Amino acid sequence: MPTAGIVAEYNPLHTGHRFHLTETRKQFTRVIAVMSGHAVQRGGPAAFSKWVRAEAAVRAGADLVLELPAVWASAPAERFAAGAVHILAGTGAVEAVSCGSESGDGAALEQAARGLIEAERDPLLPRLLKEGRTYAAAREEAVKALCGEGTAALLREPNNILALEYLKAMAAEAEAGHPLSFFTVKRLGAGHDSDRPEGGTASASKLRQMLGAGENWAAYIPEEIRPLFLGAAGKGEAGADPRQMDRAVLFKLLSTPPESLRQLPDISEGLENRFLKAAEQAKSAEELLGLVKTKRYTLSRLRRILWNLMLGNREPLVASLPPYIRVLAYRGGTGQQLMREIGQKGTLPLYTSMADIRRDFPEIAEVELNATRLFGLCCPEPVRIDEYPRLRPL
């Protein structure tokens, strides 16, 4: 049966996500989602627990939800995409990767991805970087020089950019003998990170903002899964706020030697010294980030560095790809059938127990456990989240 893979955060799952799932299911019999857990790509804790978000994904249309480990979830788009696509390819069951995009034109995105791969190997890119361009601006300029303005324009929209990173990761998997096809659904309604609802949808970032402000965020959650998110909010297991860690972050920085900071992902060019100097002056993490930020170092990159410091993540771990598949949730018989297929045909081992992962991959598991601990501590009132639940069909 044709099976599609989706890469998601569902933080939280909103009406736009459900539209993507519905459109994907029109073309594919089964859907597997790879979802970040308690650590998310922007650098910080998820707004809702991964167990709530995974169950919501199944109720909204996914048959099986797999976890993107925190080592790869709290990462720049390229590493985030590479880790997630590697898991999808490793299932042996996924035939295509489905993603939302502003473009909605699969052929144009595939052409742009080929141009992007060529541009990243072209000597023009390092020359532009030496001139002081940001990586994003230099990459777009290099693609424009090779492929023209129309193709380069695709690199200006956030969902298009993620789609291109998925395509790059798919090209690497194809070279390794795991080819996947590509399917995209045009994003409708509110744009990524849009500050206003549109067409009955609100962006996930807007929903998180509304949640924090006590506004009616639930109106933009699909009705069938709304009770899940409202129930979590009612128990205080929602609205995790990284500012709860401010003093702990400053302490962790001040008590970590420079040689250890240099082992963090995405630290380079003496950036650890800027962090240490700023930590001596700052009274909050946001103030610290403002002191460290330059044109070259974006806030998203700096936030991820601080989050990875708290997680205990290190560069040697991110240099590889995810070595296992972990199940977070599944839909009855179809999900069980998919797990059997993965066990028979997959190229990565399948796990349903964190205890087993902790035994076989202790360093990766410890980062994951730290993400869960930090999520609980960042909730409005600190809560303990079970990392060892007994999986059940939904």
UniProtKB/TrEMBL annotation:
GO MF term set: ATP binding; ligase activity, forming carbon-nitrogen bonds; tRNA binding
Organism annotation: Candidatus Faecivivens stercoravium
Entry function: Catalyzes the formation of N(4)-acetylcytidine (ac(4)C) at the wobble position of elongator tRNA(Met), using acetate and ATP as substrates. First activates an acetate ion to form acetyladenylate (Ac-AMP) and then transfers the acetyl group to tRNA to form ac(4)C34.
Binding site for ATP: 7-20, 100, 159, 187
Keywords for this protein: ATP-binding, Cytoplasm, Ligase, Nucleotide-binding, RNA-binding, tRNA processing, tRNA-binding
One of the GO BP terms on file: tRNA modification
Family: Belongs to the TmcAL family.
Intracellular or extracellular location(s): Cytoplasm
GO cellular-component term (any): cytoplasm
Name assigned to this protein: tRNA(Met) cytidine acetate ligase
EC number: 6.3.4.-
Record carries keyword Transcription regulation: no
Gene name linked to the record: tmcAL
Principal place of residence: cytoplasm
